[in-house]
Specification:
354 residues; alpha/beta; Rossmann fold; two-stranded antiparallel sheet; 14 helices; globular; carboxypeptidase; protease; AB_hydrolase_fold
């Protein structure tokens, strides 16, 4: 996604793809992830509304500092980051859209409604031959308990059933640790050469970060947001869709955390104005070919773009970045009214992706 990237040789190169040529991209980390930090070491976001307030404040302040890039905004998140997108989108729409002009939402392999998001994981693992039928049946029983606690509004117990009763149970059966069942073909791994590059003294100096530690995962925040997986951003996403904001929802075929079947179950469970279209012939698959290779399949209804990336893991961009960003570019270009770019900017850089 970044305009620049590093290779194993440590050399920085331009990441020249359709998306970086078309949009300005702003990345926002969780608290204490990357080089982000707070003056108060005890400070941490504690609920969805607070999370949305923080992100909204960051966006509005960014546009005050850089007014030349203020234009149509697309917000997006992958995996657990996706559940932060509906609260932010809802807040933007309830506030002043002249400050942040929300034009679309992008969710990749993302949590929307935990109850349906994991509803097919047992069957998925069984069909791949990774667990026995009895384990898949036990997973179904756990899902019933998860359903009951979710309906009762007990988010902590709901998340417990997901982590201990489903994820951990499957992991010990298939030989992975933590959440690594996410990719049947290859386990998720961080790009060590990028971490090596960012820690170089000359790079730290240019980033003006001093001796701040570079953090990939901050334990307390991970635990807190793990609990919040049991809460529901579903209603907020429905609000966004019913305000006619377009949604691109993409998914990796080999995702074992949020299986594609579960993701589709969540999609059909959303209450929005285009729901009936999902059950018509209009919502049929078309092939997506990129550079002579089959990338996946797309279905469209009203403002919804649903994409399945074949032979891709939980984080699609790790496997097929160029093809995925081409899809994002097409989505943005087709869902934003075309106009002249502001002075000083090329016309192909007329949008922002947050």
């Amino acid at each position: 996604m970044f305009p620049f990237m590093t290779g194993e040789d440590g050399v920085v190169r331009v990441n020249d793809n359709d998306l970086t040529q078309y949009a300005n991209i702003l990345m926002v980390d969780n608290t204490r992830v990357g080089f982000s930090h707070t003056l108060d070491p005890t400070y941490m976001v504690t609920d969805y509304d607070m999370l949305a307030e923080e992100l909204y404040a960051a966006l509005t302040q960014f546009f005050l500092l850089f007014p030349d890039v203020k234009r149509s905004v697309y917000i997006g998140g992958t995996s657990a980051a996706a559940f932060k997108i509906p609260p932010l989108g809802e807040m933007i729409l309830r506030r002043n859209r002249t400050v942040v002009d929300l034009s679309g939402v992008i969710i990749g392999d993302g949590f929307v409604d935990l109850e349906t998001d994991v509803s097919k994981v047992g069957d998925y693992m069984y069909n791949f031959g990774l667990i026995e039928k009895a384990v898949a049946r036990n997973t179904s029983n756990t899902l019933e308990a998860l359903h009951a606690t979710s309906k009762a509004g007990n988010s902590e117990l709901t998340t417990y059933y997901f982590i201990a009763g489903i994820s951990d149970e499957i992991n010990k059966r298939i030989g992975f640790k933590n959440m690594d069942q996410q990719d049947i073909m290859q386990a998720f791994r961080f790009h060590d050469h990028w971490l090596d590059f960012i820690e170089l003294p000359e790079i730290r100096a240019k980033l003006h970060v001093g001796q701040l530690p570079y953090t990939v995962i901050y334990g307390p925040a991970e635990k807190f947001f793990g609990i919040y997986l049991g809460k529901r951003p579903k209603d907020r996403l429905e609000y966004i869709l019913n305000k006619r904001i377009p949604l691109l929802k993409y998914h990796g075929q080999y995702d074992g955390i949020l299986t594609y079947q579960s993701s589709i179950a969540t999609l059909y469970n959303l209450d929005w104005y285009g729901q009936n279209c999902l059950r018509t012939k209009q919502f049929r698959r078309s092939q997506v070919w990129v550079s002579g290779q089959l990338f996946g399949y797309i279905r469209r209804c009203f403002g919804l773009w649903e994409v399945l990336a074949i032979q891709s893991p939980h984080v699609v961009q790790l496997k097929k970045p160029k093809a995925l960003w081409l899809m994002a570019y097409r989505f943005m270009k087709n869902t934003t009214s075309q106009g002249s770019a502001p002075h000083g900017f090329d016309s192909h850089r007329g949008r922002n992706l947050f």
